[in-house]
Specification:
Blueprint lengths: L2 H8 L5 E5 L3 E6 L12 E8 L2 E6 L33 H24 L12 H16 L3 H10 L43 H27 L24
Antiparallel strand pairs: 1-2, 2-3, 3-4
Helix pairs in contact: 3-4, 3-5
Length: 249
């Protein structure tokens, strides 16, 4: 057994069983859901690419789509389980790999049943958009607006709606905006953002959110240019459908 295989096997959780060991090891994985009930098992193949662990279904497209950005399956069928990569021969990385994979498979099971990825368990598509989201979330949390920003990401609602009135809004519309933290002027009226002491903090969120939106639009534009289409499993996917969704006239 090679060093990277022994580390992977040694750190494997109880919910993962190795079916075949080798350069392309095969596994049966059924992590527990929050209820404690295991998800229906996934058949996986784990390989090493340039020293990093890569995971996909043993047979691409067997249970999950062969490619689906909304379900965080890359165009080559590999799983996007985290923003970071995991070194195959580093014990701490391998432990983190299994933890992230377990949560990913639980999320997939949730999406399989409900047609939507669970709230708060995702990053925007593409590295640039994901990094911008992390920056915006950090700035929002520092300003005391973390929950508000999360509401905006999940439902397009909340105070950010005044800055980005539609899906195609580019630069934020700041003119006429009021402080999202509820500051008031001397007449007890909502304080204009341009006069608010929180303006700098809000600006940091708006700049990062603008970059996130632009980067994610560019990500989907690139997929459309390659001819990628929607698999129909997740509502609201920006990619075009090739067939009519089930249950429609």
């Amino acid at each position: 057994m090679k060093a990277e295989e022994s580390v992977l096997a040694a750190q494997a959780p109880a919910w993962a069983a190795c079916l075949f060991s080798g350069a392309r090891s095969e596994w049966l994985a059924a992590p527990p859901q929050p209820s404690g009930v295991a998800v229906p098992p996934f058949q996986l193949r784990i390989t090493e690419d340039d020293g990093q662990l890569i995971v996909a279904e043993r047979t691409l497209g067997d249970r999950l789509p062969a490619s689906c950005p909304e379900l965080h399956v890359n165009r080559n069928g590999t799983f996007c389980i985290a923003r970071r990569s995991f070194a195959a021969r580093h014990h701490t990385d391998v432990v983190a790999f299994w933890q992230n994979l377990g949560q990913y498979l639980v999320n997939q099971t949730y999406a399989e049943r409900r047609g939507v990825w669970p709230a708060g368990r995702w990053l925007s598509h593409g590295p640039d958009a994901a990094d911008a989201q992390i920056e915006a979330e950090t700035s929002a949390a520092t300003a005391g607006l973390g929950e508000d920003y999360a509401q905006w990401l999940e439902a397009g609602e909340g105070w950010l709606a005044q800055f980005f009135p539609n899906a195609n809004s580019g630069r934020p519309r700041v003119r006429g905006a009021t402080c999202p933290l509820g500051c008031v002027d001397g007449k007890d009226q909502p304080l204009a953002l341009r006069h608010c002491p929180h303006r700098t903090a809000v600006d940091h969120i708006l700049v990062a959110e603008s970059r996130r939106r632009a980067a994610e639009r560019a990500f989907f534009d690139s997929l459309r240019a390659l001819g990628d289409t929607c698999c129909g499993r997740v509502a609201g996917c920006p990619l075009p459908r090739t067939t009519q969704p089930k249950g429609t006239a």
